Amino acid sequence: MSRKLSPEQFRDRIFDVLRRKHHWVTPFLEGSTITKDKLNIFFHQEYVVYIRDFAVLLAQILGKNPPWEARRLLATIIYEEETGGFSLGQPHQELFLHMMNGLGFDRAGFRDVELLASSRGYREWLNQICQEEDWSVGAAVLSIFIKGTANDPEEVLYPKPAQNQEEIEDVVRKHFLSQHQGLSPAFMDYIRAQHMFSPGSRKTVYDMVTHHTDESSDQVRVLSLLEEALNLWSRYQEGIARACGIRQI
């Protein structure tokens, strides 16, 4: 039987997974040479795999009746995703589609997206996790892995104060869509909303999972499925690279 980890030890093991969440295709997708037709493929997959239904997936986790502190945070995140009540007053998926309009991508094209095989496999796995696994597993996969980056350790260990409006506008100006695709800031409220929602801070999300995963077997299960999430996400990225005709140099 595995030894139970302290919340800090468990968090550090999760960090080990997130530090590896990087893929060679990302610099191409965020670079200056990518064409809009290839970005169109990428964003359509992103929208259906997790952006459109993120709140629905979280609601399935909430329905498993986790401890009240976790319920409160999950409900808060769902409320923000569905209403923008803590940021700009619009659902995040609507803000995303508005950003797509700014890039010249027709909203209608996002209604019936054909997923790539690797995208479909990843999304079906997410559905299974949210429906069948314990709430702590689903919360770790959705709120830590899906929303997380390789920068999570720094953001969690050294949390910064909430960004003011000037700092958020600086993020918008430096965003790759602004820098390389000429996207007007008027279409970038989706990016702003991500930085305005302080209850969704990385430290808060990690604390929710690490402090409520009490059994060693549950910790092992979370870590195992985070590794599986990383593998499926990597295949998903490979599928996008192939569909866009991008090859590793």
> How many distinct domains?
1
Number of strands: 0
- Helical amount: 55-70%
CATH homologous superfamily placement: Heme oxygenase-like
Q: Please, could you describe this protein's structure?
A:
By secondary structure, the chain is mainly α. The protein has one domain (7-244): Heme oxygenase-like (Heme Oxygenase, Chain A, Up-down Bundle), CATH 1.20.910. 66% of the residues lie in helices and 0% in strands. The chain has 14 helices and no strands. The protein has helices spanning 7-18, 26-29, 36-51, 54-62, 68-83, 92-102, 117-132, 135-146, 152-157, 165-174, 176-181, 189-196, 202-210, 216-244. Helix 4 packs antiparallel against helix 8 (135-146) and helix 6 (92-102) runs antiparallel to helix 12. It is globular. The N and C termini lie far apart (44 Å).
Put the structure in a nutshell.
The protein has 249 residues and is mostly helical. Helices cover 66% and strands 0% of the residues. It has one domain: Heme oxygenase-like (Heme Oxygenase, Chain A, Up-down Bundle), CATH 1.20.910.10.
Would you spell out the secondary-structure blueprint of this structure?
Layout: H1 7-18, H2 26-29, H3 36-51, H4 54-62, H5 68-83, H6 92-102, H7 117-132, H8 135-146, H9 152-157, H10 165-174, H11 176-181, H12 189-196, H13 202-210, H14 216-244
Helix pairs in contact: 1-14, 3-7, 4-5, 4-7, 4-8, 6-12, 7-8, 7-14, 8-13, 8-14, 10-12
Offer a few descriptive terms.
Heme Oxygenase, Chain A, globular, 249 residues, 14 helices, mainly alpha
